[in-house]
Amino acid sequence: MNIHTQSPNPASEVRDHATLVAAEGVGMSFQGRQVLSSVDLTVNRGEIVTLIGLNGSGKSTLARILLGLLRPEVGRVWRAAQLRHGYVPQDITIDPAMPLTLQRFLTLGGKVSGPVLDETLAEVGLSGRLQAQVAALSGGELHRAMLARALLRRPDFLVLDEPMSGVDVAGQGQLYQLIETIRDRYNCGVLLISHDLHVVMAATDRVICLNHHVCCTGRPDTVVGDPEFRALFGAAVADRLALYHHHHDHSHDPDGGVVPLGHEHDHSHDHGHEHVHEHGHGHHD
Known about the structure:
- The protein has helices at 59-66, 102-106, 114-123, 139-151, 169-186, 227-233, 235-238; strands at residues 2-5, 19-30, 33-44, 48-52, 74-79, 85-88, 157-161, 189-194, 199-201, 206-210, 214-218, 222-223, 241-243, 250-252, 258-260.
- By secondary structure, it is α/β, with parallel strands linked by helices.
- It has a six-stranded mixed beta sheet, sandwiched between helices.
- Strand 2 and strand 3 (33-44) form a beta hairpin.
- The radius of gyration is 20 Å and the shape is globular.
């Protein structure tokens, strides 16, 4: 097993055989600003974990730490031996003036046989598109192309950073279905990162709300079953979306410090427009 320890009191090294990645008491700061504090997170094989939080809450930093791209200042990260991981970034910039076919994009990391490329593109719903220009792909198609590239690694641990960014609701339902299918086919663990604080993938096993530390964790418990929503987008979309209700026992001061609450009360998450939800605290980022 690969174990990276910064803590003077490391936790037990005994793990369930299904565990792929575990963060324990992870802390990280940049230029004196605390980005992560005492974060615990585990992803098991065959499990989908959704990590939610506002922009700037530390989600992408935590993902890079879990992938081994950053070393935490405090705490430890445990990874299963010979762990194969795949990473799908939130977005990539393709110069429209630069010719880049989907085939070339998928083989930038090394040679891949034609049959494997065809099979992988079929998995993500891009059959017959090898010669398509990447710059001409729609937002949803680009996400699928990046997912295909990650799948070429046959990952045990798949990290998807904001995969629904720029994708409409119908497209989100299709991508969620695809992610669920891939989880089942590869028996991999999936970490799905999202800035949407309330609507999550219905197949999520566990939701973790991050605001530099873990504010709350739980399961999505209410399927989006409003009849008008189902009529507008169809059952296939509605059945793959769920609502997550936060249960926080603290608030945050203007500097991001934790302020314990005597009881829960309504606050809105400030993310550019006003919504009022049942939460125990509001974020200030």
